[in-house]
Design a protein that fits this description.
There is one protein chain. With 384 residues, the protein is of the alpha/beta class. The chain has 2 domains: 91 residues, Roll (Urease, subunit C, domain 1), CATH 2.30.40; 280 residues, Alpha-Beta Barrel (TIM Barrel). It has 11 helices and 15 strands. Strands 1, 2, 3, 4, 5, 13, 14 and 15 form an 8-stranded mixed beta sheet that branches. Strands 9-10-11-12 form a 4-stranded parallel beta sheet.
Length: 384
C-alpha cells in the first residue's frame, strides 16, 4: 500500500490523503487513508506528490556520445556492444527521471532493448518501438507497403515516417502524397499506428489527409493544419525547447556530422521561439489532442521533463494540462489507456513521486525521488 498526502490522478483531478492499494503489479484500490489491511506493507511517501509514471511519446535512447566525445554514428565510434550499453544507460536515466514508458522511434536496436527490459530484468522504462523509420528514399508506394508489413513481422509496435526534411534543412515536405497514403493506409490495415516527422505546414496537411495517426514537430505549422488535425482526430506532438537547446549546448559533439553545421545550428536557434508560438496556437485550437514527446537524443536522456517546464513557462500551457498530456492522453494516443496513464483501480501500478506539487510548480517534475514500475520500486530517495 502506498500512502500519499497528495495525488494527481493523471486525468486532471487532485486527491488528498490517499491510500493506493497495489496487488500483483496493478492498482486495486484508491481511497481515503485508513486501516492497513492485514498482511499489507505500508509505504508512506510523506509530503511528496504522487502521480502516474510519465510517458514520453518520442525518444531515441540509442543515440549517445561515444568515448571520443562525439555523436556515435555507424561509421565510427563505439562497438555494437558498447553502443547497446550506452542505450541501456540512457534508458535507465530516463526511468530514474520518472518516465516509466517511452516510445522510441527510429532504431533497430530498440527491439532488443525493449525485450530485455520487459523480459530479462534490465532496468528501464517500458518501450514501444518503430524500429527503422521509412523515408522518401525507401521506395515507391508498393515497396513502402511491403516495408510496413516487414516492420510488423520484425516486431515493430508502430511505424515512423519522415514526411519532411530536418529543421536544419528547412523542413519542407519530402514524401509524396502517394507515398504517405501507402504507408499510413497499409499500417492502418495492419492495426499499426503511424508517427510522422513533419515540420512544414504542407507536410503536416499531407500526413493528415493520408490518414496518419500522429504528427511530430510541426515547427512551421499553420492554423489550417492545426484545424485539420483537430477535425480528423490526429494527435499532435510538438516539441518546445529541449531538442533544440540540447543540440546547441552540445554543439561540439555534433558539429561536422551530416547537417550539423553552421546553417543547421542557426536554424535550430531560430526554431526555439517558433516552437513555443506553435504550441500556443495548438493549445488555442479546439479539439486538438496535444500529446507529449521530447525527441530526446544524445545528451538529453534523463532530462525528458524539461519540455513540460518549457510548455508551461514559454508556451502558456497550464501545468495540469501538460501533466495530463504526459500521462493519460499519451497513454490513450499509444493505445495503452486501459493499462497506463492514470491512478485508478485496474491500471498498472506505474507511479512516481516528486518533491513539490507539479500542478502548482511545474519545475517539481525535475525533482522525482520515487519511481515504481508495475508495482516494483526502482527508486526511492526517501522523504523530502
Amino acid at each position: 500500500m502506498l500512502r500519499a498526502a497528495r495525488v494527481l490522478d493523471g486525468r486532471g483531478d487532485v486527491l488528498t490523503g490517499v491510500d493506493i492499494t497495489i496487488r500483483n503489479g496493478r492498482i486495486e484500490r484508491v481511497g481515503p487513508q485508513g486501516t492497513i489491511p492485514s498482511g499489507s506493507r505500508l509505504l508512506d511517501v510523506g509530503n511528496r506528490t504522487v502521480l502516474p509514471g510519465l510517458i514520453d511519446a518520442h525518444t531515441h535512447p540509442a543515440w549517445h556520445f561515444n568515448r571520443q566525445g562525439k555523436l556515435h554514428t555507424d561509421r565510427d565510434g563505439d562497438t555494437p556492444v558498447q553502443s547497446m550499453l550506452s542505450a541501456a544507460a540512457n534508458a535507465y536515466a530516463t526511468l530514474r527521471a520518472g518516465f516509466t514508458t517511452i516510445q522510441s522511434v527510429g532504431s533497430a536496436e530498440d527491439r532488443d532493448l525493449r525485450d530485455w527490459i520487459a523480459d530479462q530484468g534490465l532496468p528501464g522504462p517500458r518501450i514501444l518501438t518503430s524500429l527503422e523509420p521509412l523515408t522518401e528514399r525507401s521506395g515507391d508506394p508498393e515497396a513502402l507497403r511491403a516495408l510496413v508489413r516487414e516492420r510488423k513481422a520484425q516486431g515493430a509496435d508502430l511505424i515512423k515516417i519522415f514526411a519532411s526534411a530536418s529543421i536544419r534543412d528547412g523542413g519542407g515536405q519530402t514524401m509524396t502524397d502517394a507515398q504517405l497514403e501507402a504507408v499510413c493506409g497499409e499500417a492502418k490495415a495492419l492495426g499499426l499506428r503511424t508517427l510522422v516527422h513533419a515540420h512544414s505546414a504542407a507536410a503536416v496537411k499531407a500526413s493528415v489527409r493520408a490518414g496518419c495517426t500522429q504528427v511530430e514537430h510541426g515547427v512551421f505549422v499553420d492554423q489550417e493544419a492545426l484545424d485539420l488535425m483537430a477535425g480528423r482526430g490526429v494527435y499532435f506532438d510538438p516539441q518546445c525547447s529541449l531538442i533544440f537547446t540540447n543540440y546547441l549546448d552540445n554543439r561540439a559533439k555534433y558539429e561536422g556530422i551530416g547537417n550539423y553545421n553552421e546553417a543547421g545550428f542557426s536554424a535550430m536557434e531560430r526554431a526555439i521561439p517558433l516552437a513555443a508560438e506553435g504550441i500556443r496556437k495548438a493549445l488555442a485550437t479546439p479539439g486538438l489532442g496535444i500529446v507529449y514527446g521530447t525527441d530526446a537524443v544524445a545528451g538529453a536522456h534523463g532530462r525528458n521533463a524539461d519540455d513540460l517546464v518549457c510548455r508551461v513557462q514559454s508556451a502558456g500551457e497550464t501545468p495540469m494540462h501538460a501533466l495530463v498530456a504526459a500521462t493519460s492522453l499519451n497513454a490513450e494516443a499509444m493505445g495503452l489507456g486501459d493499462d497506463l496513464g492514470a491512478i485508478a483501480p485496474g491500471l498498472i501500478a506505474d507511479l512516481i513521486a516528486t518533491d513539490g506539487d507539479p500542478s502548482a510548480d511545474i519545475t517539481a517534475v525535475r525533482r522525482v525521488t520515487f519511481v515504481m514500475v508495475g508495482g516494483r520500486i526502482v527508486r526511492d530517495d526517501g522523504r523530502p
